[in-house]
Automatic annotation (TrEMBL):
The active site is at 244 (proton donor). It catalyses: 5-(methylsulfanyl)-alpha-D-ribose 1-phosphate = 5-(methylsulfanyl)-D-ribulose 1-phosphate. The keyword Isomerase applies. This is Methylthioribose-1-phosphate isomerase. Belongs to the EIF-2B alpha/beta/delta subunits family. MtnA subfamily. Keywords: Amino-acid biosynthesis, Isomerase, Methionine biosynthesis.
Length: 353
Protein backbone atom coordinates (compact mmCIF):
# COMPACT_ATOMS: atom_id res chain seq x y z
CA UNK A 1 0.00 0.00 0.00
CA UNK A 2 1.34 3.41 -1.00
CA UNK A 3 0.79 6.05 1.69
CA UNK A 4 1.13 8.88 -0.82
CA UNK A 5 -1.78 10.10 -2.97
CA UNK A 6 -2.16 9.60 -6.74
CA UNK A 7 0.60 7.04 -7.31
CA UNK A 8 3.22 9.53 -6.14
CA UNK A 9 6.41 8.25 -4.49
CA UNK A 10 9.30 10.11 -2.84
CA UNK A 11 11.45 9.53 -5.97
CA UNK A 12 10.08 8.12 -9.21
CA UNK A 13 10.41 8.19 -12.97
CA UNK A 14 7.52 9.87 -14.76
CA UNK A 15 7.32 9.94 -18.58
CA UNK A 16 10.68 11.58 -19.40
CA UNK A 17 11.79 13.03 -16.07
CA UNK A 18 12.14 12.34 -12.35
CA UNK A 19 9.61 13.48 -9.79
CA UNK A 20 10.40 14.13 -6.15
CA UNK A 21 8.15 14.87 -3.22
CA UNK A 22 9.52 18.19 -1.95
CA UNK A 23 10.34 17.27 1.65
CA UNK A 24 11.22 20.86 2.58
CA UNK A 25 7.54 21.86 2.53
CA UNK A 26 5.97 19.04 4.52
CA UNK A 27 3.83 18.80 6.56
CA UNK A 28 2.15 22.04 5.52
CA UNK A 29 2.29 21.54 1.78
CA UNK A 30 2.44 18.38 -0.33
CA UNK A 31 4.35 19.43 -3.44
CA UNK A 32 5.99 17.43 -6.21
CA UNK A 33 8.93 18.83 -8.20
CA UNK A 34 10.11 17.80 -11.68
CA UNK A 35 13.79 17.16 -12.24
CA UNK A 36 15.08 17.07 -15.82
CA UNK A 37 18.81 17.69 -15.39
CA UNK A 38 21.55 16.07 -13.36
CA UNK A 39 22.65 19.43 -11.88
CA UNK A 40 19.12 19.99 -10.61
CA UNK A 41 19.15 16.56 -9.01
CA UNK A 42 22.44 17.40 -7.27
CA UNK A 43 20.88 20.61 -5.96
CA UNK A 44 17.75 18.77 -4.79
CA UNK A 45 19.93 16.35 -2.79
CA UNK A 46 22.06 19.15 -1.34
CA UNK A 47 19.08 21.26 -0.31
CA UNK A 48 17.26 18.20 1.07
CA UNK A 49 14.25 18.38 -1.23
CA UNK A 50 15.02 14.67 -1.27
CA UNK A 51 16.70 13.24 1.82
CA UNK A 52 17.19 10.01 3.76
CA UNK A 53 19.97 7.60 2.82
CA UNK A 54 18.14 5.17 0.49
CA UNK A 55 16.10 7.95 -1.16
CA UNK A 56 19.19 9.98 -2.03
CA UNK A 57 20.76 6.80 -3.42
CA UNK A 58 17.78 6.31 -5.75
CA UNK A 59 17.76 10.02 -6.64
CA UNK A 60 21.48 9.93 -7.45
CA UNK A 61 20.99 6.88 -9.68
CA UNK A 62 18.42 8.84 -11.70
CA UNK A 63 20.78 11.83 -11.59
CA UNK A 64 23.37 9.66 -13.31
CA UNK A 65 20.94 8.78 -16.07
CA UNK A 66 19.83 12.40 -16.51
CA UNK A 67 23.51 13.35 -16.76
CA UNK A 68 24.13 10.59 -19.30
CA UNK A 69 21.23 11.89 -21.36
CA UNK A 70 22.86 15.33 -21.47
CA UNK A 71 26.14 14.00 -22.92
CA UNK A 72 26.28 14.44 -26.69
CA UNK A 73 28.94 12.20 -28.15
CA UNK A 74 28.98 8.84 -29.86
CA UNK A 75 32.49 8.13 -28.65
CA UNK A 76 32.35 5.62 -25.81
CA UNK A 77 35.54 6.76 -24.05
CA UNK A 78 34.49 10.40 -24.16
CA UNK A 79 31.05 9.43 -22.91
CA UNK A 80 32.49 7.51 -19.94
CA UNK A 81 34.89 10.36 -19.11
CA UNK A 82 32.04 12.87 -19.07
CA UNK A 83 29.85 10.50 -17.08
CA UNK A 84 32.63 10.35 -14.50
CA UNK A 85 32.24 14.14 -14.12
CA UNK A 86 28.51 13.71 -13.57
CA UNK A 87 29.30 11.13 -10.89
CA UNK A 88 31.76 13.47 -9.12
CA UNK A 89 29.22 16.29 -9.14
CA UNK A 90 26.54 14.09 -7.58
CA UNK A 91 28.97 12.65 -5.03
CA UNK A 92 29.87 16.16 -3.83
CA UNK A 93 26.35 16.77 -2.50
CA UNK A 94 26.24 15.02 0.88
CA UNK A 95 29.10 13.03 2.46
CA UNK A 96 27.65 10.73 5.11
CA UNK A 97 25.01 8.45 3.58
CA UNK A 98 26.90 5.74 1.73
CA UNK A 99 23.84 4.80 -0.35
CA UNK A 100 24.58 7.87 -2.47
CA UNK A 101 28.07 6.59 -3.36
CA UNK A 102 26.84 3.02 -3.66
CA UNK A 103 24.19 3.96 -6.25
CA UNK A 104 26.53 6.20 -8.26
CA UNK A 105 29.27 3.56 -8.31
CA UNK A 106 26.76 0.94 -9.39
CA UNK A 107 25.61 3.15 -12.26
CA UNK A 108 29.20 3.91 -13.28
CA UNK A 109 30.15 0.24 -13.15
CA UNK A 110 27.10 -0.64 -15.27
CA UNK A 111 28.11 1.93 -17.87
CA UNK A 112 31.67 0.62 -18.04
CA UNK A 113 30.60 -3.03 -18.29
CA UNK A 114 27.89 -2.58 -20.89
CA UNK A 115 28.93 -3.42 -24.41
CA UNK A 116 27.37 -1.45 -27.27
CA UNK A 117 26.88 2.03 -28.68
CA UNK A 118 26.46 5.08 -26.42
CA UNK A 119 22.69 5.28 -27.03
CA UNK A 120 22.35 1.72 -25.79
CA UNK A 121 24.46 2.52 -22.70
CA UNK A 122 22.08 5.37 -21.89
CA UNK A 123 19.08 3.06 -22.18
CA UNK A 124 20.73 0.53 -19.85
CA UNK A 125 21.50 3.30 -17.33
CA UNK A 126 17.86 4.35 -17.28
CA UNK A 127 16.77 0.75 -16.67
CA UNK A 128 19.37 0.35 -13.92
CA UNK A 129 18.16 3.48 -12.10
CA UNK A 130 14.60 2.16 -12.28
CA UNK A 131 15.79 -1.19 -11.00
CA UNK A 132 17.59 0.44 -8.03
CA UNK A 133 14.35 2.29 -7.31
CA UNK A 134 12.21 -0.88 -7.43
CA UNK A 135 14.75 -2.92 -5.44
CA UNK A 136 14.76 -0.36 -2.65
CA UNK A 137 11.01 -0.65 -2.20
CA UNK A 138 11.23 -4.46 -2.05
CA UNK A 139 14.13 -4.18 0.40
CA UNK A 140 12.06 -1.98 2.71
CA UNK A 141 9.24 -4.54 2.77
CA UNK A 142 11.77 -7.25 3.63
CA UNK A 143 13.25 -5.13 6.44
CA UNK A 144 9.73 -4.67 7.82
CA UNK A 145 9.21 -8.46 7.85
CA UNK A 146 12.62 -9.14 9.41
CA UNK A 147 12.01 -6.51 12.06
CA UNK A 148 8.81 -8.22 13.17
CA UNK A 149 10.82 -11.36 13.98
CA UNK A 150 13.12 -9.62 16.45
CA UNK A 151 10.95 -7.07 18.20
CA UNK A 152 10.35 -7.99 21.86
CA UNK A 153 7.65 -10.67 22.23
CA UNK A 154 6.20 -8.89 25.24
CA UNK A 155 4.14 -6.88 25.66
CA UNK A 156 1.91 -7.98 22.79
CA UNK A 157 1.32 -4.36 21.84
CA UNK A 158 4.59 -2.46 21.75
CA UNK A 159 5.46 1.12 22.51
CA UNK A 160 8.27 1.98 20.09
CA UNK A 161 10.40 5.09 19.79
CA UNK A 162 12.17 6.43 16.71
CA UNK A 163 14.41 9.35 15.80
CA UNK A 164 14.51 11.41 12.59
CA UNK A 165 12.67 10.06 9.54
CA UNK A 166 13.59 6.62 8.27
CA UNK A 167 10.19 6.28 6.68
CA UNK A 168 8.64 6.03 3.23
CA UNK A 169 9.91 9.54 2.50
CA UNK A 170 13.50 8.55 3.22
CA UNK A 171 13.38 5.55 0.86
CA UNK A 172 11.68 4.48 -2.36
CA UNK A 173 8.60 3.99 -0.14
CA UNK A 174 7.57 2.16 3.09
CA UNK A 175 10.77 2.96 5.04
CA UNK A 176 13.40 1.13 7.05
CA UNK A 177 12.97 1.89 10.76
CA UNK A 178 9.49 3.23 10.09
CA UNK A 179 8.96 0.22 7.84
CA UNK A 180 9.44 -1.99 10.92
CA UNK A 181 7.01 0.22 12.85
CA UNK A 182 4.57 0.08 9.93
CA UNK A 183 4.76 -3.71 9.77
CA UNK A 184 4.22 -3.92 13.54
CA UNK A 185 1.18 -1.65 13.20
CA UNK A 186 -0.27 -3.71 10.35
CA UNK A 187 0.23 -6.91 12.34
CA UNK A 188 -1.60 -5.42 15.33
CA UNK A 189 1.60 -5.31 17.38
CA UNK A 190 1.91 -1.55 17.84
CA UNK A 191 0.42 0.30 20.77
CA UNK A 192 2.06 3.64 19.99
CA UNK A 193 5.06 5.24 18.32
CA UNK A 194 6.99 7.95 20.13
CA UNK A 195 8.88 10.28 17.81
CA UNK A 196 11.77 12.53 18.75
CA UNK A 197 11.26 15.89 17.08
CA UNK A 198 14.92 15.63 15.87
CA UNK A 199 16.59 19.01 16.23
CA UNK A 200 17.65 20.95 14.29
CA UNK A 201 15.79 20.13 11.06
CA UNK A 202 12.88 18.44 12.79
CA UNK A 203 12.53 15.45 10.46
CA UNK A 204 10.73 13.59 13.26
CA UNK A 205 8.18 16.33 13.88
CA UNK A 206 7.67 17.33 10.28
CA UNK A 207 8.04 14.09 8.33
CA UNK A 208 7.68 11.01 10.53
CA UNK A 209 4.63 12.31 12.35
CA UNK A 210 3.13 13.33 8.99
CA UNK A 211 3.63 9.81 7.62
CA UNK A 212 2.05 8.29 10.72
CA UNK A 213 -0.97 10.55 10.56
CA UNK A 214 -1.46 9.62 6.88
CA UNK A 215 -1.71 5.97 7.87
CA UNK A 216 -3.49 6.27 11.20
CA UNK A 217 -0.53 5.03 13.22
CA UNK A 218 -0.97 6.15 16.84
CA UNK A 219 1.80 8.63 17.43
CA UNK A 220 3.13 10.87 20.18
CA UNK A 221 5.66 13.59 19.44
CA UNK A 222 8.27 14.40 22.08
CA UNK A 223 11.32 16.66 22.06
CA UNK A 224 14.71 14.92 21.87
CA UNK A 225 15.47 15.68 25.51
CA UNK A 226 12.35 13.85 26.72
CA UNK A 227 13.39 10.35 25.62
CA UNK A 228 15.29 9.53 28.84
CA UNK A 229 12.37 10.62 30.97
CA UNK A 230 9.94 8.50 28.94
CA UNK A 231 12.19 5.45 29.26
CA UNK A 232 12.59 5.95 32.99
CA UNK A 233 8.80 5.94 33.31
CA UNK A 234 8.70 2.61 31.41
CA UNK A 235 6.89 4.10 28.42
CA UNK A 236 9.16 2.60 25.71
CA UNK A 237 9.59 -1.12 24.88
CA UNK A 238 12.16 -0.72 22.08
CA UNK A 239 13.89 1.91 19.96
CA UNK A 240 14.14 1.52 16.16
CA UNK A 241 16.19 3.95 14.08
CA UNK A 242 17.61 4.05 10.56
CA UNK A 243 21.21 4.57 9.48
CA UNK A 244 23.19 6.55 6.92
CA UNK A 245 26.34 4.46 6.99
CA UNK A 246 27.23 1.35 8.97
CA UNK A 247 30.87 0.28 9.30
CA UNK A 248 31.95 -3.37 9.01
CA UNK A 249 32.04 -3.72 12.82
CA UNK A 250 28.46 -2.47 13.17
CA UNK A 251 29.13 1.12 14.32
CA UNK A 252 26.25 3.08 12.80
CA UNK A 253 26.05 6.71 11.72
CA UNK A 254 22.58 8.21 11.84
CA UNK A 255 20.94 11.58 12.46
CA UNK A 256 22.53 13.64 15.22
CA UNK A 257 21.02 12.63 18.55
CA UNK A 258 20.90 8.91 17.78
CA UNK A 259 24.04 8.22 19.83
CA UNK A 260 22.67 9.85 22.98
CA UNK A 261 19.41 7.97 22.46
CA UNK A 262 21.34 4.68 22.34
CA UNK A 263 23.13 5.51 25.60
CA UNK A 264 19.83 6.35 27.23
CA UNK A 265 18.28 3.12 25.92
CA UNK A 266 21.13 1.03 27.35
CA UNK A 267 20.85 2.81 30.71
CA UNK A 268 17.19 1.79 30.88
CA UNK A 269 17.61 -1.71 29.46
CA UNK A 270 15.53 -0.86 26.39
CA UNK A 271 16.54 -2.78 23.20
CA UNK A 272 17.99 -0.53 20.51
CA UNK A 273 17.62 -1.62 16.87
CA UNK A 274 19.09 -0.15 13.70
CA UNK A 275 17.12 -0.97 10.53
CA UNK A 276 18.93 -0.50 7.22
CA UNK A 277 19.47 -2.12 3.82
CA UNK A 278 22.83 -3.65 2.94
CA UNK A 279 23.39 -0.67 0.62
CA UNK A 280 23.87 1.34 3.85
CA UNK A 281 26.67 -0.94 5.06
CA UNK A 282 30.15 0.21 4.09
CA UNK A 283 32.27 -2.92 4.38
CA UNK A 284 35.34 -0.95 3.23
CA UNK A 285 35.63 0.79 6.58
CA UNK A 286 36.50 -1.12 9.72
CA UNK A 287 34.75 1.10 12.24
CA UNK A 288 32.75 4.27 12.70
CA UNK A 289 35.74 6.59 13.18
CA UNK A 290 36.14 6.55 9.40
CA UNK A 291 32.63 7.74 8.62
CA UNK A 292 32.62 11.32 7.29
CA UNK A 293 30.23 13.49 9.28
CA UNK A 294 28.44 16.24 7.40
CA UNK A 295 28.43 19.69 8.99
CA UNK A 296 25.59 21.88 7.83
CA UNK A 297 24.89 25.60 7.77
CA UNK A 298 24.62 26.90 11.36
CA UNK A 299 21.48 28.79 10.41
CA UNK A 300 19.74 25.46 11.09
CA UNK A 301 20.48 25.89 14.80
CA UNK A 302 20.39 29.62 15.36
CA UNK A 303 17.03 30.27 13.71
CA UNK A 304 13.65 28.72 14.26
CA UNK A 305 11.63 29.72 11.24
CA UNK A 306 12.55 33.33 10.62
CA UNK A 307 13.36 34.03 14.28
CA UNK A 308 16.93 34.15 15.57
CA UNK A 309 17.02 32.33 18.92
CA UNK A 310 20.43 33.39 20.28
CA UNK A 311 22.46 36.58 20.50
CA UNK A 312 25.07 37.64 17.97
CA UNK A 313 28.59 36.78 19.13
CA UNK A 314 28.14 33.05 19.83
CA UNK A 315 29.86 30.42 17.70
CA UNK A 316 28.14 27.36 16.29
CA UNK A 317 28.79 23.69 15.67
CA UNK A 318 26.24 21.82 13.58
CA UNK A 319 27.22 18.19 12.89
CA UNK A 320 24.32 16.54 11.09
CA UNK A 321 25.10 12.95 12.13
CA UNK A 322 26.71 11.00 14.95
CA UNK A 323 28.03 7.47 15.25
CA UNK A 324 26.49 4.95 17.63
CA UNK A 325 29.08 2.37 18.72
CA UNK A 326 28.18 -1.24 17.91
CA UNK A 327 28.13 -2.25 21.57
CA UNK A 328 25.07 -0.07 22.16
CA UNK A 329 23.13 -1.73 19.32
CA UNK A 330 20.98 -4.77 20.14
CA UNK A 331 20.51 -5.78 16.52
CA UNK A 332 20.86 -4.56 12.95
CA UNK A 333 17.77 -5.36 10.89
CA UNK A 334 18.61 -5.89 7.21
CA UNK A 335 16.57 -7.28 4.32
CA UNK A 336 18.33 -10.63 4.83
CA UNK A 337 17.75 -10.89 8.54
CA UNK A 338 18.48 -9.22 11.84
CA UNK A 339 21.90 -9.86 13.35
CA UNK A 340 24.15 -8.67 16.13
CA UNK A 341 26.48 -5.90 14.87
CA UNK A 342 29.48 -8.26 15.07
CA UNK A 343 27.70 -10.73 12.74
CA UNK A 344 27.07 -8.22 9.96
CA UNK A 345 30.09 -9.35 7.95
CA UNK A 346 28.30 -12.59 7.08
CA UNK A 347 26.23 -10.53 4.60
CA UNK A 348 29.21 -8.97 2.83
CA UNK A 349 28.94 -11.18 -0.26
CA UNK A 350 25.25 -10.41 -0.65
CA UNK A 351 25.77 -6.67 -1.09
CA UNK A 352 25.35 -5.74 -4.75
CA UNK A 353 28.50 -3.84 -5.91
C1 LIG B 1 15.97 5.30 5.89
S1 LIG B 1 16.68 6.78 6.22
C2 LIG B 1 17.94 6.56 7.43
C3 LIG B 1 18.69 7.80 7.64
O1 LIG B 1 19.06 8.35 6.42
C4 LIG B 1 17.87 8.84 8.45
O2 LIG B 1 17.64 8.34 9.72
C5 LIG B 1 18.66 10.12 8.50
O3 LIG B 1 19.53 10.29 9.33
C6 LIG B 1 18.37 11.11 7.45
O4 LIG B 1 19.14 12.26 7.53
P1 LIG B 1 18.80 13.46 6.56
O5 LIG B 1 19.81 14.53 6.95
O6 LIG B 1 17.40 13.88 6.83
O7 LIG B 1 19.03 12.99 5.15
Amino acid sequence: MNIFPNQVYPVYWYQDHVRLIDQTHLPNEFAVVEINRSDDMALAIKTMIVRGAPAIGVAAAYGMYLGAREIHTDNRDQFLAQLEQVAENLKATRPTAVNLFWAIDRMMKTARQTVGPVDYLKEVLKETAQQINAEDLETCYAIGDQGLKVLPEKPTKLRLLTHCNAGALATAGYGTALGVVRSAFREGRLERLYIDETRPRLQGAKLTSWECVQEGIPVTLITDSMAAHCMKLGMVDAVVVGADRIAANGDAANKIGTYSLAIVAQAHNVPFFVAAPLSTVDFTIADGTQIPIEERDPVEIYKIGETRICPFGVEFYNPSFDVTPADLITGIITEFGAVKPSELVQFQERRVV
